[in-house]
Amino acid sequence: MKFSEDKIGRGYFVTGYERNIIVVNGDAKTSSFIISDEQLIENWAPTHIDELRSHHLDPLLGLEPELVLIGTGEVLKFPSVSHYACLIQQNIGVEIMDSAAACRTYNILLNEGRKVVAGIILDPNG
């Protein structure tokens, strides 16, 4: 039987969320951010999924993920594939989901020891 260590408690993880507020390690975030086990990048440029462009993914790529989650805000909305094709071309898995689902999935994958990075879009104007 294989046992895995519970990683929640170290690094960056989502501790709560509600409409346009995500709580990371007990600190409320009201603007878009990038989160990984070892780094939190605040004030990520897109505030709406329609603003997402491929250059916005450069900071996520710099974290060398095996999987990227894109939280599209309160509602799931798929961006153009051309905006995240750079991930696919580098054989990095990508999942698009609403921000609450992305936060839940991020915590699960982090707990499994996966090298996951999430870009979470939050509209500061709610």
Instruction: Look up the CATH topology.
Output: Hypothetical Protein Mth938, Chain: A
How many structural units, i.e. domains? 1
Major sheet: arrangement of strands: 5-4-8-6-7
Poorly predicted runs are 1-8
Rg, please?
A: 14 Å
Shape estimate: globular
**Fraction in beta strands:** 25-35%
Overall average pLDDT:
90
Tell me the total number of β-strands.
8
Q: What do we call the CATH homologous superfamily?
A: MTH938-like
Give the distance, in angstroms, between the N- and C-terminal Cα atoms.
46 Å
Total helical elements? 3
- For the record, the CATH architecture stands as 3-Layer(aba) Sandwich
Reading off the top of the CATH hierarchy, the class is best stated as Alpha Beta
Give the structural class: alpha/beta
